[in-house]
Prior knowledge:
Layout: H1 2-22, E1 35-45, E2 59-66, E3 69-70, E4 76-77, E5 80-87, H2 90-100, E6 104-106, E7 112-116, H3 117-122, H4 125-128, H5 130-134, E8 143-147, H6 151-154, H7 167-175, E9 188-189, H8 190-198, E10 203-211, E11 214-223, E12 230-234, H9 236-246, E13 252-258, E14 263-281, E15 284-300, H10 310-339, H11 346-353, H12 355-361, H13 365-369, E16 374-384
Parallel strand pairs: 1-6, 1-7, 7-8, 8-10, 15-16
Antiparallel strand pairs: 1-2, 2-5, 3-4, 8-9, 10-11, 11-12, 13-14, 14-15
Helix pairs in contact: 9-10, 11-12
Amino acid sequence: MRWFLKRKRNIFIIYLILSLALLTGCWDNRDIEEVSFNLGIALDQADGDIKLEGEPPVITATFQNLAPKVTISGQAEIDFDNISITGNTISKISTELALLNPGTIISQHLKTIAISENLARHMNLENLLNDFQRNINTRISTNILIAKGNAKSVFEKNLGEKGNAIPALKILRIIDNDDFSLRLLKPATLAIVGDRLASEQSFLLPRVQKKGNEIVLEDAAVISGKTKKMVGLINSEEVNGFRWLVGKKGGGRLNIFNRKNNLIFTIQIFHMSSEIIPHVRGNQISFDVNVYGEGTLIEDWIENADAADNRFLQKLEKEAEQKIVYQMRSVLYKLQKQFRADVVGFGEALRIKYPQTFQKVKQNWDEMFADVPIEVHADLKIRNYGVKIKK
């Protein structure tokens, strides 16, 4: 019996010691006002020719850090600071940042990296983004964009603007509106960009710019898989065509304005898809692209229109299909003849259906893509026309 009581006492002592260890509190805690959360980074080519012989071009990185502060009244206040540092590599710049920034920098919340056009046109993006891809503290879901002019200007704070209007996050909120506009292109993540660059596949990145006090997303930059640099731009109308070609989940509004036929109307697209069909006949490669869409007629300025009349709806569908085909042909012409860059995925479709043929052409695919015949077809159905029928 004594042996049992002694054993029970020993167990109690061990339990008590373990309990004390759990009650020691957060020994490594840090006050929130003593840390900075890095939300965005703008990368620009530095002014002048400040570089050592044999070293890469000088880069200016602007870090947008969330800086929680406590006011005199004890209220929490959210604000941000921009810190610009110049260096030859991202690693060197990060080291300088640690020396300048008061407090610990937490980079796990990085949301946006904006690269200036000038830098993207002259620097290998695989090298530029190498540090971010290797860094275990940088999330691969970070969004990559191209900035018109200085990327730093996109992150600048407007006079009189509230502290919580953080540009790095505001960009993401604008991108979330891609269901309402076919002109918006979602940015590629760090993971996707790294994969495309490593496999030498061309791709698009959305372009962001500052217009007055507003952040605007329009147009898209074409990144060559071969050179790993920006080779040009497609405009917002051509972004529409690109989105139809790839047929990814999403939607937007298709606006038709045909002065000749006196047709003005808008269709809200709620479904879109595409199918790329490769053909190989001997040494000849060609493609058919079939796109399909469904939408709602949300507005029309057509006299004596009756949306309940199938003939009227078919007329609008045909007009919309012609607009879609025009947009797709426009962007394809620029991608093939001007940039020689397959950003749509024709090479991938060829690889899946004709792997042996693709192995023969993959080393020089972008050049071959420039001369490959591509036929595009559109099928659009208006499924709803709202509550107003006859005018």
